[in-house]
Design brief:
The chain is an all-alpha fold. The protein has one domain: MetI-like (MetI-like fold, Orthogonal Bundle), CATH 1.10.3720. The chain contains ten helices and no strands.
């Protein structure tokens, strides 16, 4: 007696659908994985990777690398701090969990609805433009340096954090918050005592994850003159100095490990 899987036809249809979608995409991008195995390309790749070893450990370069690392940390941290200033008010405004109209009739319903609508439009504009584009625009205004990188992260991540914060609050347990609102408490009190205790771990975890993303973004924005490790890597790559690039990549990986450890410790403390 053969075993029949009732979900097999559905899986097969999804597989066919994925192939129909992916095949035109591969044709449009002209992606050819066989190029990786051509002898010429393999030789070029081997020579390129061979330049990465050993990593650069000269004292003068390590001093420059240390300064660029501090710049990258400063860009990511300052950018996330400014993003929080943007995201927290916008997230609280659009969150339905703090809506008094959900527990009964309320005055000023039209005003709050208008504020939520405006806040959603603002967040959509902020997060709709990639941080690298914001960096290119801001470099034209403020010139080369960390200011453009900080503001680019703040603007883009402010919209992202605000949207996700509101979704986290709406998906958490809102019973305590509704009770406080029914008893006449203000929205701020209901947030701190009704919503925040149950959602703090997820909020903190996502914030640290965004800080890690800001580290990566600050490196990418360095290629357009926003400072930090990215700008140093751009200079090293233009000079075809693979050993310096290798040292920069090692430091960047250490920063990612730092972010992972920090996220673990924060979540452990909030348990």
């Amino acid at each position: 007696m053969t075993n029949y899987d009732p979900a097999a036809p559905r899986r097969f249809l999804w597989l066919v659908f994925a192939f129909i979608i992916l095949w035109p995409a591969l044709l449009i991008t002209q992606f050819n994985p066989l190029l990786f195995f051509e002898s010429t390309n393999l030789q070029v790749l081997g020579n390129f990777l061979g330049q990465f070893f050993p990593p650069q450990t000269a004292r003068d370069f390590l001093q420059i690398l240390f300064k660029a690392t501090l710049e990258t940390l400063a860009i990511a941290t300052a950018g996330i701090t400014l993003a929080l200033i943007i995201a927290i008010p916008l997230g609280l405004i659009i969150s339905q969990s703090l809506s008094i109209s959900r527990i009964g009739p309320a005055n000023g319903h039209l005003l709050w609805w208008s504020m939520r609508y405006i806040a959603r439009i603002i967040m959509m504009i902020l997060r709709g433009v990639p941080e690298i584009v914001w960096a290119l625009l801001l470099v034209r205004v403020f010139g080369l340096g960390v200011t453009a990188g900080v503001l680019a992260i703040a603007v883009t991540y402010g919209g992202m954090l605000g949207k996700v914060y509101s979704e986290i609050l709406e998906s958490s347990d809102t019973k305590s918050c509704r009770v406080l609102l029914q008893l006449g408490s203000g929205r701020i009190v209901a947030f701190f005592y009704g919503l925040l205790p149950g959602a703090s771990q997820e909020l903190a975890s996502y914030t640290i994850y965004r800080w890690e993303c800001a580290l990566r973004a600050s490196v990418v924005m360095g290629f357009v003159g926003a400072g930090g490790l990215g700008q140093l890597m751009d200079q090293s790559m233009k000079l075809l100095n693979g050993s310096e690039v290798s040292s920069i990549l090692i430091v960047f990986l250490l920063l990612v490990l730092l972010a992972d450890w920090l996220s673990y410790e924060v979540r452990r403390q909030l348990l």
